[in-house]
Queue: 2 jobs
Job 1
Amino acid sequence: MKEIKALLAGRIFTPTEDIPDGVILIDGHRILKVGPREKVQIPKSAPVIDDRDRLVVPGFVDMHIHGAGGRDLMEGTADAVAAVAQFLARHGITSFLATTVTARLDRTLSAVEGLAKIVSAAERSQGGSEKAPGAQPLGIHFEGPFISQVRRGAQPAAHIRKPSIEIAERLLDAAGNSAKVAVLAPELPRALELLKFFRSRGLRVGLGHSDATFDETVRAIDAGATHATHCYNGMRPFTHRDPGIVGAVLTDDRVSAELIADGVHVEPAAVRLLARSKGLERVILVSDAVSAAGMPDGKYRLGGFPVLVTGGVCRTEEGALAGSTATLDATVRNLAAFTGASFQSCVACATLNPARLLGIEKQKGVIAAGADADLVVLDKNHYVTQTYVRGRAVL
Ligand SMILES: [Zn+2]
């Protein structure tokens, strides 16, 4: 009981509950207790942090991110991951999946091996021993190489592969326990076989960078696909006579949908359509951020290829959108503004919803006894004033 501290909050979104005038007791890297002040006894010796003029929500979970603060996660080094993690923590993101881009196979394999070691070390450290606490890398999200040439977006055409269990096995061997999510285009030959293989190895499977028809998508959902990868982007467009993958994702409650709510990737009206048809409980905010996030306009690299950022919008040399420069905290504010939904329900889209998809909702994305003490303190305009990563203050 030696390390207990008490955080007093004006309001707490757990995010399913709204607790005015609340207290969170933090014991080392875990939450010991949460509740209204009159119901939570604060130990006499506990230091008290007074945020009674603030809102406290769970730390944001970004399940689709490639880099930030000038560094790319495909570098696969401890140094690069720490730089990204520290940048994210300052924006309220307390955990993330390091996301690959389609690249030469040997390059992907060496990045994944590096990332897997970093993920295991972060898990063992229980709150981190690094000097500046950073967001926790939870695992690896494979974006490519089993995607559609037609809907590749910024992914380089030369390194796209046909679905292959043999290649998938090499990727999973390199990743070990860190492999969490894989993206595939379900219309490709043998895609459903590969989908089932990924599911049998415990991965969640996102449908994306895909030209699938409505029927092809439904068959993939029947086969166990869990979600849509950055819904609308990199997909066959919806029309009323050819609803395609977007039409299937919007109307099938068995899948969640990732959304890049940066105001650039998806128009606000299309965001409202997604929110209404799926319900916000099936919307997962992702940043899809690249190394240029948090950096000035200019030339950057995404995985192996050059990208150009102008006015905060990141594109390839051919002009395709190439990830975003957004941070998840900003997209939560955008989602509330675009949809008019309660801020509490939008917070869930960046916390509980991704945690639930990944099956870690007892530990991440919630403020509950026994969960990791990943917390974000927000001012009245919902800007981050403090972040705690596994109990350690970031700012
Ligand atoms: Zn991406």
Note: The chain has two domains: 4-56+381-393, 60-362.
Job 2
Amino acid sequence: MSSSGIGKSSIGRKVIMALSGLFLLVFLVQHLIINLLSVLNPESFNTTSHFMGTNPVVQFVAQPVLIGGVLIHYFMGIILTIKNKKARPVSYISDNQSANSSWVSRNMIVTGIMIFLFLILHMGDFWIHEITVKFFGDKSWDVVGFIDGTEEFRYWEELHHTMANPIRVGVYSLAFLFLGLHLAHGFASTFQSVGFRDGRFTPALEKFGKGYSVVVPLLFTMIAWCHYFNWYL
Ligand code: HEM
């Protein structure tokens, strides 16, 4: 360990990375469940979205915590990548890198940046939109004319409208592929960092991690496609 303080040691940084990652994994599941409703039960999707969009605890506690979690995860990820590069300044010219580690494990920063770019697009699609409508009364975004009177019914229409764009659906699908790759290695290293590597539950946790990294991105992709192709209940 280089110096005292959890964020300053290499193990400390990995633990912070793992814990913020675990927190984001929980966020992702709740986000997936709400978005699945947009395909399975549009009315419940509207009710839930309206609740999430107007509840003060969600708005002023959960959202800042989420933003904090994302920032910590990215900040630590960049620091870890720089430190790892410094620890191994000579590139493996004579070494067969792919025999030692997978492309994904060596390029977490690349898949992380792809997800970051997706998040910028995604925040522009939904979050900025929410803020301008809610706090600044901007009606130019009102794609379906729902903002006056039937405000709480607009969420499904807006999501559906966004997913009508094939380029958007293509970019989202590609981003979910990167998300799957990032999650697959993220899970493996999280277990290592928080000490679950050789325990009794390791095989089950590894299976869960692999399942999560395939099923969650796949379901997000399905949601985008279902809206594009009008496959919903
Ligand atoms: C087809 C897939 C997805 C759909 C349809 C979708 C839809 C939405 C919607 C409608 C919102 C706005 C919520 C609000 O009213 O504030 C939102 C926010 C957000 N989404 Fe997604 N999302 C998808 C995938 C993802 C993925 C894969 C991630 C992360 C990698 C993600 C991260 C976020 C974040 C961080 C927010 C802002 C926080 C929040 O408002 O809850 N989304 N998304």
Note: The CA atoms of residues 20 and 68 lie 9 Å apart.
